[in-house]
Every structure is written in structure tokens, then in C-alpha cells.
Amino acid sequence: MKSASKSASMIITMFTQQNQEMQLAQAKKEFDEMAKEIADRRKKLLFQLEKGKKKEVEKVDASKAEKFKTMDEHRIPLEELEQRFQTNAKTGLTREVADQKLVEFGKNELSQKEKEPWYMKLIHELTSMFAWLLWAGAALCFLAYGLAPEDPSNLYLGIVIMVVNTLTGIITFFQNAKSEAIMDAFKNFIPPETLVIRDGQQQKFPASNLVPGDVVVIENGKRIPADIRILESNEMKVDNSSLTGESLLLLRSPECTNQTNPLETKNLAFFGTLCKEGNGKGMVVFTGDNTVIGQIAGLVDSSGGDDTTLRRELNVFIKYIAVIAISIGVIFFVLGFIIGYPAITNLVFAIGIIVANVPEGLLATVTVALTLTAKKLAYKKVLVKNLEGVETLGSTSCICSDKTGTLTQNKMTVENLWYNNKKYKGANKEKMGPKFNYEYDLNEVGFKTLHETAILCSEATFDTALPQEQQIRIQNAIGLNQQQKDQKMKEAIEKWNQNFQKMTCQEKPTIGDASETALIKFFQPINDIIQTRQSRQVARDNEHKMAKMPFNSTNKYAFIIVEYETPDSHYCLLTKGAPERIWGLCDSAYNNGRVELKDEKWEQSFVQINEQFGRQGERVLGFSKLHLPKEQFPIGYQFNLDKMNFPFNKQVFVGLISLIDPPKDNVPYAVIKCKTAGIQVIMVTGDQPVTAAAIARQCNIITEKTVDELMQEKGISFEEAFHQSNALVIHGDKLTKMAIDDEGLPEEDKGRQLQEWLSKPQLVFARTSPAQKLIIVAGCQRRGHIVAVTGDGVNDSPAIKKADIGIAMGITGSDVAKDAADMILLNDDFSSIVVGIEEGRKIFDNLKKSIAYCLTSNISELLPFLGFVIFRIPLPLTTVLILCIDIGTDIFPCTTYVFEDADIDIMTRRPRSQDEHLVSGKLLVYAYVQNGVLSTYCGYFQWFVTLYDFGFNPQDLLFIGVRETILPKTGDQYDPTDPWFGNSNLKRIYENGKCDFPFPEEEIEEIDWIYANHAKLDLRMAYIECKDGELKEVFQWAPCSVNLVSPYTKRPYCFTTEASNYAQTSFFYGIVVGQICNYQGLRSLKNAGTFQGFSNYYMFFGFWVEFMLTVALSYIEVFNTVFGTRDLLFIHYGICALPFALIMLIWAEGRKWMIRASKSKTNYPSWWERCVVF
């Protein structure tokens, strides 16, 4: 009965496996047919997904970029291939034919993207839209100086704007150049030479000289030098993870196993992949750009790239500012004519108004902020190639991530153990430490047996040799002779040996396949693998060779016979292999050290655990052993491995070990944090759906039953399950079918099925090609997402380039992926993306604060001009002092915003929508209407107080600039008792002291309040009017409270235009005081100022620099001359601006309190959240 039940179970298992293989083969066949059918339509599918897109990149046709799907070099007979390439599989090409082909096909190298000259890159930085705005401002300043050369302030302003604009462009240029220099250091070194058979002789040739038809020898551990068709294979296995995303090693053989899809056939090996096991021989079929990697790299160029979100936002902001500045300038240019000013005066003041509206320091602030953030991220192992990419990452709403090497470690690791009919978690002793509660017991007999069997059956070892990349780097070093290279090699080996001893088992490089590597890294911390192997000597066969057989794809097992003394045996047979194969070789199993015959219970347990491991995407190895009876196998027995003169089908089952390429440690938490921040994480991989779904579950990308699982569990249709689950796994076949179904549809109707799939919050795309990844990214962008794409392989690079922000792995990433990326994770840690997102969001918030800060002072710079033009008051603020604010006192505090801590909700708020701009109407209202007006009050109140102290009543200043006067002579002295008040010119005109007639027109002049033409005149003698036949003072002068002498006129400030220069400096300081309080109010967008604290020490440095600048402007005589400033008394040092400055701070805090207090408890935001938060 037992044998009958066993046979039935085996038959069912074999039938199920056979059926699954047939279904998989059929699915692959359908997929390949679809892929072939749409190959000639690929370009249209890739670049016309978005409605109305007119510009198409003409560089690379996507169908040509994947022309390998229509190749036939792998399936035609070898004789036909030899004829095609004029070669011989045994003797290779002749030298003459090889030389001809080298001329025809060119070097075996990927075309390097033509680098833009450094000067063009610098020009690009100097000609951004923001830079153009500043260049226009500088040009207007020079124009104003040309129209009014008596005012040199416009000349100074133009020169400084040019200097600042140039410096910021140079800073950005050098920062990006530094990133490029780091990128150059990433370049992988392909072995410079390879073994080639030409003219029947094996010889070394530069890999770059290979041509189609060459016969090459592939050695273990070497990269494949071109696309080759396998001629001979000695258990040759390659790592195709950079192409397909699969982390398992793939066996290569001369047989064509897939007629239609070259990527799936076993008789092709591809350029740039690595031969990890065995060796072989092959014929070159493609070289250089014609290789599969070369064609995929071509998709990178065809996928194109757009401006960063920050660049687009800044461009929108610049348009806002330009429209506002030009509109106000034109309005007041026209008003000037209406009032009656000359054309030149109107133009000069229109230019002044326009320049006052341009935040000259903001470009420098943005550049410095991005540079500082890039450096901060560099400390956290995130390299930013494009400074503006930092903010793009912060606005990301969707991350499309590759699996292998990005989410996972790209290293097979022991996941579970199954022995004694129980499952145990395979926690690594070295990684988890001695205090961890391990499920397995090191002293238990079943574990010891599995441990010994696994190590004795494996051949992987730790590799102590200097890595090949370092050897090649030294050998290729330029400028060193051979002796110097040998010395460097010796030093490198010594250093490597020292570092090797310090490495953990997980860090040490190994020799052997991925599965055996996982085994030795698991068992080494338990007991040294060399010691374990040396404890059992390998038996010898009849040819005196070691009695062991390596794994092969036919038998699906490997075995070894060792000397193993027991009371009943001298030898022991140990076997490992595919679990079903090993289980079939056994008729009994170990259970706590006892041997039990297999029965239905054992059969059921094995099937269940094997299926469970399979569903979890784990690769399973089975182990068995058999002690050979000493009577039949005495010491010295001659084993014959060909005839198998020993029992092989009566073994005792030891156990199973499941392996998986596990997620990186921080990935599950990082994915949760992304979801908390409202960011969707989509896995896009070339791996199998089962493996992809299992890893997605471990990474927290999938947290519930998938649509497919519900279909199987409930027996319902896909459509029904689709509406019951938020988790979906899509096979690449469906994308291909969707593309075919969309043919002929209007643009707006294409991709609707993809949009339905993308609506699921938990999504995995499996078995995707590079072109399909592009379609997925375009679909996400069509949904309005800001898409980040992460990856490390060549197959990821087109999608990385297409994304809004492309992210590549720095350690495991391919050169093509790194070149396509905007950002590189130097430590390959996916969780670093979360750091980048937080920094990106923070920099967006901080740029908002900086812009609001700068625009606030713009209003207090603009309104004095308007007051001067409309109300003809003395000019409260000169253009030079505007420059001192924009590029002097404002720029340092403005820059220190980058060091402010983020708001507490920064990683819990939703990603900003594309309708939410850096500069919104709410921000403009806050900066211009609210704080801008209060800041102007700060300046004007201080200005009025200062002029009052020098004898000018505030009401008397209105229209003082257009009052008619008879100017006194320079030597005249004011005398209130004199009928002419000391004005000798009035005395000359009205000798009798009576004004019987109006002032003669030829004698009338207006006081020059702008320049120093009338600075020495006492204005009490000038502002005289003829009223009722008598000469009377126009104003009721205020008392002169400050008896201060001007260092320039050597006369008191009171009652002179020199007081205006003094008051202008005071107005300037009033704005500075207001901006200090404005800074405090803007340190957070929602948090209370007390919560934000005072940990930003750079803020205090900014204030100190601001204070020192004001001191220098006021008390250094050279600056007084250049900027027209004066040395102030303490009372005029912005003190009078404090009341309005504090009102500004109180309003900012009250506004934020209302935002927090009125937070909506529903999904619909409150009025304060909708209309006040900017």
C-alpha cells in the first residue's frame, strides 16, 4: 500500500510539474509571437503615448533598438552560420577576413555619447531663463546710466548683477562638473584582452578588435567580450541579471532552446555579462553597438529627458516676476507722462521699478541651497548629478523600482531550513548575533547532519585573491612602467589581505555559484567550512580521481563519496540537487537521528513545504546521504561513477534548504515610509511573477492577497478578482497584448487598460522588457505622477532616462544605468531614496520660504519709488541700496533657510500635485500684500522719524519735490527775523521785502533731492512762498533734534537735502530689521516658532553677517561714498521699525496657529488650509 500511495503521489507531482512547464512554454511562445508582431511598431508605441506630442526623438528607432528579437543567428544550423560569417567553428577566421570585417563593423566598443564641451555647459548655466532675466536687468541698468550719467548708482547696480549672475553660473557649473568627475570613476573595466582562435591558433587579442565570426574561449570569472553563440560548454553558467533582472545563474549549452526569443535561449551569451561557473567556447555574432546591450543602450537616447520640475517651477516664477515688473514699469512710465515728467526721467524710473521687482539675489540663493543640499546628500552616499534633481525627487509621487540589486541584495541567502519534518527560519548567526533567539539548534542531530551534508556537497570557497577589477586598473594605469606596476600590485595585494581578514563572511568575495555561496556564508559562522571538509577525505574512483560528480542540468543533482567511519560503514554517499529529484532518490528520511520509511504523511509534508517555498519565490535545494555497508564497500573499494557500482536510489533524505535573494535590510521600512508620504512604490522587474510577488510581499509593496491569488482561491474571473483586491501582479505578456489591442485607436483611448492597472496601490510588473518599462513609466506620467525610476542593470537604463528623476545603484549599477541617471545611490541602499525625498521636500519648502522672504523686501523696495513718482516725496531708497538688500543683507539669511529643519508633517503629507507651484497666488499675496506692506511700514516709519529729527514734518514731505523755489546762494545764512529769511536771491528780486509780483520764471528752480547739487543749502531759505504780498515760509519746520554734521558738506544735516541721504540709510536699516522678524516668521510653514527652536546656528551667522554689512555700509567712509550711505545714530538704526516688525512676526505666528487650529477632520481641507497655506 505504501509503495502504491508513493507512486500515485509521485505521478501527481510529476504531472503537475509537466503541466506547468507546458503552460509556461505556451505562454512564452505567445509572448514571443506578439513581440515579433509589434517589433516594427515599437517606436510609435513608445513616443506617441501622450496626446498631442509633436516632437519625436529621431536618434534611435526603438524597433531597431530591440532588433535582437528578430535575429536568427541562434537558431540557424552551424554550417549556415559559418558561411554567413566566412569562418570555421574549429579554426576561426583567417587574418585577412578578420581585418576586412574590422573595417566593415568597426571596433567592438559601445559608442560613447558625444560629450558637450565644457564651455558650452558653462554657457548653458549662464543662459537659463532666470539668468536671462538678470542679464536683462543688468542691461536696463546700463541703459539707465546712459540716459542719466550723473547717477552712477545704475552703473554699479548693473556691474554687480553681472558679477553675481556669472558667479552663480560658475558655481553650478563646477558642482555639476564635480559630479561628472565622480561618475568617470565609476566606469567598469572590461578585460582588455580575450582568448581568440584565428588561423587555427589560440591567441590573445584586444577584445575591442573582435569581429563577427571570431571564435572565442570563455574562461571562468571573465566577462563575455561580445554577443556569442555557444559552440562548447563545460557547465558554463552566466549571470544575466543586468539584462533580465534574474539573479539565478543560467546554464549555457550549444542547443537552441528557444527559437523566437534570443534572451531565453541557452546557446547565446551576451556582451558584458559574467561567466560565473565553468568555461566554454563560442562564435561572435554581434559586436559593439549591435550587441544586445548596445541596442538597449540605444533606447536610452531615444527615451529623451525633460526639464526638471524645479527648472519648470523657476521658469513659471520668472514669468510671474517679469510680467509684474514690466507691467508696473510700463504703468508708471505712462503715469510719468501724464504728470508731466520728461521722457528720459520716466524711462529711468521705469527701469528702476523693473529692477526693484527682480530678486537679484534669488538665483544665488537657489544655487547655494541646491549645492549645500547636494553636499549634504553626498555625506549620506547619494550623488546628485544634476543639482535641480534634488527637488524633483522631493516632488516624486511614484517610484518604479527594479527588483534585483535595487530592492534585493542580488545575493542568494539561506531563508529556511526543513529537517526532522519541521521548518526553521534560517537566521544567519553572524548577522543576527549571539543574543538572537534562533529557531534551529546547533547541537541537534538533524541540523548537524544537514550542515555536514550541505558543506561536503558544495565546492564554493572564499576568494582571497585581489579582485580582478583592481588588477586590471593597475595593469592599465597610464604613465607607469612594468616595475612600478608590479610594485603597486604587491602593495595592493598586501592591503587587500589585511582588509580581507577584517571582513565579515557576508562581505567576503567567493568562488562558486550563487546557491553554494549562500550555503557557505550561512554555515561558516557556525563552523569553518575548510575544517568541515577536511574532516572527511574524498574517496577515490577506479581512475584514482576524487569520487564526485558535479551538478548538471540533465541529472539535476551532484554527489560526492567520502570516507566516513561508522560501526557499519567506511564510506558515505552525499547528494544535493533539485528537491523533487533528491526526494525521488530516497526511500526513507532522517527524523531526530532516526531513519523512518517514507509514508503518506512524509509525502504530504514534503509536497506542502516544497509548494510553500515555491510560492514564496524561494529556490530550494534537497540533501540526502547513504552510508555504504562495509561488507560490500571495504576500504580501498574502486568506485566507478560511470557505471554507478554503488546503490543510488535507496538514500536517506536529510532535509531542504530554501534560498532567496532577500530584500535589503532597510527596504521594507523605506517602502512603508514612502507609502506614509503618499508615494506609490511599483516593482518593475524582468524576473518571474512568483518570485517578484514574494519579494514584493517581503518589501511591503504588497500587503494583501493579489488578484491572481483570489482567482485561484475563490475560482472567480480576473475581472471579479480585480475589483476585490488592491494588489496586482502583471506579466509582461499583458503589456504586449495591450499594445497590439491599442493599434489603430485614437491617442486618447490608448493605454486605458494600463491606466486601470496603475490605479491599484499595490502593483508589480514582472517579465518586462526594457521597452515595456518605458511604456510603464510613460503611463505613470500620463496619470500625472512625478516618476522616479530606480535600477542597476542595462535593462533599466531606458526607463531611468525617461523618468522625471532617474536613480541608479553606484556599486552594482551598470555604466549605462549610471550614465542615464540623475542621481546615484553610492551605497546601493534603497532607503537612501527616502532621505532624498525628505531633503527634496524640505528644499522645496525652504525655497518657498526664501522666495517669500525675498519678495517681501521687493515691495518695500518698490513702494518708495512709487511714492517718489506719485507723491513727489524725496526718494526714500536708492537703487544702490536696493542692491545692498538683494545681494547683501538679504542673501545670507535667505541662504540659511536651507539649514532649517523640516516641518514635522513633511513625510506624512501627500506629494504635491502638478498644479501646486513653487510660487502660487497665495504666496504672492502673503509676500506682497501682507508682509510686504508691513515691511514697507518698517522702512517708512523709520524714515519719517529720522527726517523729523532733522527738521522735516512728515506732512510737509508730500509733493515737496515739485514745489517752486528761489534758491539761496551757498554762503547765505538762515535768519527767521530777516524779511527774506537770509536768501540773498530773494532780496535781489524783492528789494523792499514785499512780493508784489510772482516769482520770475527764469529764477524758479526745483530742489534736487536725488543728487548732491543742493546739499549745502539750508532749505528753510528755499521753501519760501509769496502770500498776501509777503514772503512767508512754506512749512512749519520741526525742531532740529539731532545736531549732527555731514562729513561731506561739513554742515549740519538739519533742513538740508543731505538729511535725505541720511534718512535713506535709515530706511534701509528699517527694512533690515523688518526682514529679521520676517525670517523668524517664515522659519516654518505650519509649525510654531517655539517648536522650530534655535538649533539653526547658520541663522545666527547670517544675522551676524547682515549686521556687519550694515555696520560697514554705515561707518566705512569708502562705502559711504560708493553707496551714498551715512553714519547713523543708534536711534536711527532701525529701532523705530521694531513695532511694525513685531506685528509682522505676531501676524505670521497667528496665521500658522489658525492653520493648525482649523485643520479639517475630513478629507476636504478647511478654508485656512485651502486659501492660506502656500
List strands and helices in order, with pairings:
Elements: H1 2-37, H2 42-47, H3 62-65, H4 78-85, H5 95-105, H6 118-126, H7 129-147, H8 153-184, E1 193-198, E2 201-206, E3 215-218, E4 227-239, H9 241-244, E5 250-251, E6 268-269, E7 274-286, H10 292-303, H11 309-339, H12 343-357, H13 362-379, E8 382-384, H14 389-394, E9 398-401, H15 403-407, E10 413-419, E11 422-425, H16 429-432, H17 445-457, E12 461-462, H18 468-475, H19 482-502, E13 510-511, H20 514-523, H21 529-534, E14 548-549, E15 557-566, E16 569-577, H22 579-584, E17 586-591, E18 594-597, H23 600-615, E19 619-629, E20 651-660, H24 667-676, E21 680-684, H25 689-698, H26 707-714, H27 718-722, E22 727-731, H28 732-742, H29 752-758, E23 762-766, H30 770-782, E24 787-791, H31 797-802, E25 805-809, H32 815-820, E26 823-825, H33 831-870, H34 879-889, H35 891-896, H36 921-949, H37 984-989, E27 1024-1027, E28 1030-1033, H38 1058-1082, H39 1089-1092, H40 1097-1115, H41 1117-1123, H42 1138-1157, H43 1167-1171
Parallel strand pairs: 9-21, 9-24, 17-20, 21-23, 22-23, 24-25, 25-26
Antiparallel strand pairs: 1-2, 1-3, 3-7, 4-5, 4-6, 4-7, 8-26, 10-11, 10-20, 12-13, 14-15, 15-16, 16-19, 17-18, 19-20, 27-28
